[in-house]
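Hi V.,

Quick status before I head out on leave. The structure for the redesign project is tokenized and pasted below; the design run finished overnight.
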């Protein structure tokens, strides 16, 4: 059953058939104000305009080392190998991502409460927040497969039942991000346009989409239009930097054929005022390790 069966109006219709029309976003990008947290007015304005901002040195080199060692520990934990929260690379079988990592790792459970992170998320979303999704991405060297262009919100709306794009992601680099090792590319300002995708959501689609997404990706025509209008920025920077980006910004990354891994901790904060409902375009919600349905606000 989708939300449509309940007769609730869907502002961001997607997974449609036939031609699509881009939809102007009716929601803000930034919901809070300068007075609500650590982000200064200029940075808040930049995030509002571009849909992202970068915090250099969010983690100190010593902290990076600590979390890097945690990632290595997790990826070599034999008990985790069979866990459905561990996603492997389609070709190499190497660990690609580990979901719900804030519940698996004590260290990362503390990180989501760190004021440098939690207070920023609350300010951008203008409310109490909870973790919609957490994952560590390994993007190993030589064989790390990238992620084709997409809007996270399109998937979270269609498959998890997220009503509005009132969520923000924080990708913390644990290895140096170069232009050549699969650094995330974003289209600045594209968060103000919702691009519906063509194609019905297959049953249990997450089992393949987290390895390689085919449904829920915009057409080349729409991507070309967005790139022409907004250009493409790339997130590069030393380990410890963090990219904060809007749930609906168009983004993607290339394959990593270099010897240098591009590993990160990826935290998605959703507003408690934007709690998930029934999926807007899928038969049933994805498992809670991908789209949490515990809306309890994060507190220190
Ligand atoms: O489907 C998802 O929820 C995940 N997929 C991608 C490519 N980005 C967002 C999220 O981690
Ligand atoms: Fe994404």
């Amino acid at each position: 059953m989708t939300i449509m069966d309940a007769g609730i109006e869907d502002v961001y219709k997607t997974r449609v058939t036939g031609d699509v029309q881009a939809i102007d976003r009716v929601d803000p990008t930034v919901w809070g104000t300068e007075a609500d947290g650590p982000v200064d007015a200029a940075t808040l304005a930049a995030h509002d305009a571009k849909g992202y901002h970068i915090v250099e040195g969010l983690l100190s080199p010593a902290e990076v080392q600590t979390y890097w060692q945690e990632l290595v520990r997790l990826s070599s934990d034999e008990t985790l190998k069979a866990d459905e929260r561990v996603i492997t690379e389609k070709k190499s079988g190497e660990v690609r991502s580990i979901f719900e990592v804030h519940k698996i790792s004590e260290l990362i459970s503390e990180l989501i409460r760190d004021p440098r992170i939690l207070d920023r998320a609350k300010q951008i979303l203008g409310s109490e927040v909870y973790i919609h999704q957490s994952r560590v991405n390994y993007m190993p060297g030589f064989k790390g497969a990238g992620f084709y262009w997409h809007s996270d919100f399109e998937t979270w709306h269609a498959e998890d039942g997220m009503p509005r794009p009132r969520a923000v992601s924080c990708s913390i680099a644990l290895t140096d991000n170069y232009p050549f090792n699969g650094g995330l590319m974003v289209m600045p300002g594209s968060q103000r346009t919702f691009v519906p995708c063509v194609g019905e959501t297959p049953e249990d689609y997450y089992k393949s989409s987290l390895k390689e997404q085919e449904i829920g990706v915009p057409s080349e025509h729409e991507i070309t239009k967005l790139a022409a209008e907004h250009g493409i920025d790339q997130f590069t920077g030393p380990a410890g930097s963090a990219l904060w980006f809007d749930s609906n910004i168009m983004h993607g990354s290339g394959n990593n054929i270099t010897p240098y891994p591009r590993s990160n901790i990826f935290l998605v904060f959703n507003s408690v005022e934007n709690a998930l409902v029934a999926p807007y375009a899928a038969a049933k919600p994805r498992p809670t390790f991908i789209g949490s349905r515990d809306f309890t606000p994060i507190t220190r």
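Above is the designed sequence. The CA atoms of residues 115 and 300 lie 8 Å apart.

G. will cover questions while I'm gone.

Best,
W.
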